[in-house]
TrEMBL record, chains A, B:
Residues 1-90 form the HTH arsR-type domain. Coiled coil: none annotated. This is Metalloregulator ArsR/SmtB family transcription factor. It comes from Streptomyces niphimycinicus. Keywords: DNA-binding, Transcription, Transcription regulation. NCBIfam families: HTH_metalloreg.
Amino acid sequence: MHALDVLGDPVRRRILELLAAGERSSGEVSTVIRSEFGISQPAVSQHLRVLREGGFASVRAEGTRRLYAVEAAPLREVDRWLDQFRGFWEQRLDALGTELARGKRQRRLDQGRGGDSRTGEET
Amino acid sequence: MHALDVLGDPVRRRILELLAAGERSSGEVSTVIRSEFGISQPAVSQHLRVLREGGFASVRAEGTRRLYAVEAAPLREVDRWLDQFRGFWEQRLDALGTELARGKRQRRLDQGRGGDSRTGEET
DNA sequence: AACGAATTTAAGCGTTGACTTATATAAGCG
DNA sequence: CGCTTATATAAGTCAACGCTTAAATTCGTT
């Protein structure tokens, strides 16, 4: 199962956002998600399982609590997948100053928009 | 509909990969996808519609052909969403030389893993 | 104007997947 | 030990989504 399949769910994305702020117990996550999405505790637990099995989160037992934490690998994989599209905004838009003004992130564009193979070139 | 919902489908991801190499007509895309996934031409057309409506692709008419091209905005949005997780690999792993050896992409980590709010710190 | 190619839209169907309720597991505690 | 708390699993239901076939649209061609 591809990483992006797992991220194709708003609840799971939100859970990851919570975990990004630091380790959280299943119960803590459930409380928040429950109030935000109005779903049951088992539903949250099932999402946690998907995240676990997808490698997005790791668990650590502490007493009867299960402490979840973000695991980087699949997210990095998504980031890599995006690489092939980076050329579409790294230039072209900073002409308008849009991106640089906002993100302030700076990358070296080394592979930038590899050559076309068959059809026409764009723009 | 969130950008990541749209990317939660292998066919749509593959279509975007094709478009990343340059403008392609609906028919050209269909041919490739069809051979790779074994689905019908209308099925491909429907995926193209989702990409269109999600802002991932733009269309340009040329005679009876429709030429599709990648549109950056939603992909950039995904990239931004990933920002909150970047801290989980930008350090910690380049100690192993893994990332730097591979991606060769260099970012300035200006916001890196914002402080925890409630529970424990990780690691 | 009729025909054919390229593409989209419409309608219907089947499967996947997210949810619910109910139950199991397991640790803390009186 | 039995009870409660924390969490996971099981089983079943329902809706969303992706696919198919069929029809509509649009342009180019003779």
